[in-house]
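WARN  no MSA supplied for this record, continuing single-sequence
INFO  ligand: zinc ion
INFO  echoing inputs
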Amino acid sequence: MMKRLTAIALAFAFSFLSAGALASQQSWLNESIGEMEEALVVEYGEEQRARVQKGLAQIADFWRVEDGDREHFESFVVRNFAGDQATLDEMFTRYEKLMEQLDGHLLEILISFREQSDLDIGPILPFDEVFAAYDPFAHIGDDFFANKLAFIVLLNFPITTLDERLTEGENWTRRQWAETRLAGRFSRRVPADVQQAVTTADAVTSQYIAEYNIWMHHLLTDEGERLFPEGMKLLSHWNLRDEIKANYGNPDNGLDKQRMIQKVMERIIDQSIPAVVVDNPHVDWDPYANSVRAAAVSDVDEPAPDDLAITDAREPDTRYEVLLGRFKAERMVDQYSPTAPSRIARSFNENRELPEERVVEMFEAVLSSPLLARTAKLVEKRLGRPLQPFDIWYNGFRSAGTYSEAQLSVMTKARYPTPAAYEADIPNLLVGLGFEERRAKELAANIVVDPARGSGHAWGASMRDAKAHLRTRVGADGMDYKGYNIAVHEMGHNVEQTISLNDIDHYMLQGVPNTAFTEALAFVFQARDLELLGLESPDEEALAMRALDDYWGAAEIGAVALVDIGVWHWMYDNPEATPAELKAATLDIARDVWNRYFAEIYGVEDVTLLGVYSHMINRAIYLPDYPIGAMISRQIEEHLTDAGDLGAEFERMCLAGSISPDLWMQKATGAPVGPEALLNAADRALDRLE
Ligand SMILES: [Zn+2]
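INFO  complex generated
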């Protein structure tokens, strides 16, 4: 069923490739731009020429036939070009104020609409789900181009390239940064039908991933043995990987299970997996011999369907077909995104604002460091056996700690029987972290604690009058340790969100450069959760183990990210590729990255495991965020440990706002984003533990 839906949805996505005709394809535009430039320079003076040229070029990039003819275009330009500083200041100030109103109120609507679904406050009725799915921001981009508020921004404020932000940004005023953020909101105008194609391709890949379960009890060894318990259903790749991790503590058959999962993963990656075993509890599968038969035992209630055809026909490269669908949808966006005309450029230059070459260099520095072989030796020693390829997911550096989770839960439940109890304690917690008492109270007054239905999350506000929401699970008998640990993490988000919105100098600069930064700041709080309970903080040995765990994990996910990046380049180089060709290329790239960094250490070549991540299929170059996040987190943590005075330093960092990541990090810690802190910490840890 899954596959039929895929084919239909993809056919739908590419049945319409028409899009709004760009005015740049019209003859009058170039002539008009030349005339308007002269007219505006005559009116406002030669010193405005550069601004005039830039503004006209920017609106020409997006002007479509439906936006008006030559006469409309020219009268729009004359009416809306702010040719003197006073008018420009007024325009900027009002836009900034009104954008805050727009974002702020729409976000309040969104949060309210999702409240019943997000919070543990009673049953969800069918209409609640419709409210929760409603996105009040969905049409803002279209509206603002249609009513030309976006064109006014583009006529007056410069869209900048990443290169300009990196080379000149250091010397910009805060106002210039704020202007570049305002213009950046309108750097692309994607027609509704193209946007729809992206949404559809996205839904197809997400559904493909969401249903890709392996029924573990139905995996057979070559002796016909079942290693996994009844009813165990693992989603690729997350649950499969986590099951490998969970078996490090299993001396009985942990290694056999880990090996079998590796085999399953390899068959998913190279698509030799029999199609019939995917999400199907009615067949038994020996992944080594790759043979399938009707399930000899049942661990589900429903019987096998009568028409179940059991064959070992392999999955027909669907994994790569849906990835190609995603790629083709992104390619349609390219021509409407003049400053970042590829998914790769959008991912690095716009979303992340770190150049791809630098990101790749940072990953290579982590992977080619001699520390990796040193750490591997230690892993091998701790395991008491030679490394296996799946040991890229070794998690034995996580120490158990002095207190059990159950002991900690007794403490947290007594302290926090309700969300209100936690909310009331926030000022004390912030003082405990190093904020001054008066400031701790101010920040706490801006945070509301709600009972989450699922796991925790934090909603910052988008306007200064609104509050930040801290959501975590609170059981009937109080907040257990897991809920508390999450609450402290989310509190870190809320404090960052509050400072970087309420105390920032320009609304357009609110926030942090990207999600890796807000996560890193939240981890600063989370890492101190035991201290806040009045318990001893982790000792030197535990900290050293944590540093190695971070490094080992960053190396693994860094290698995975290199595969992700490599695959997208290959697709752009081979846009007409078939799913089979994309599969072959992905396998080559995965083997190549493995051979470069891991083959010698693991004593085995041509492993394909780095190609297993589901994000590669449904998240389009998202994976690099993880290793970058690990580096940023370590940089910030290290700086705060050295600087002391956590409250004041945290506040100072947050006030940099959403400037470029390197500039933010430079201001915060004195160095741009980089792997050095992560590597240095691993080096010190190895000295201690070897
Ligand atoms: Zn978080």
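The first strand starts at residue 213 and ends at 215.
INFO  checksum written, moving to next record
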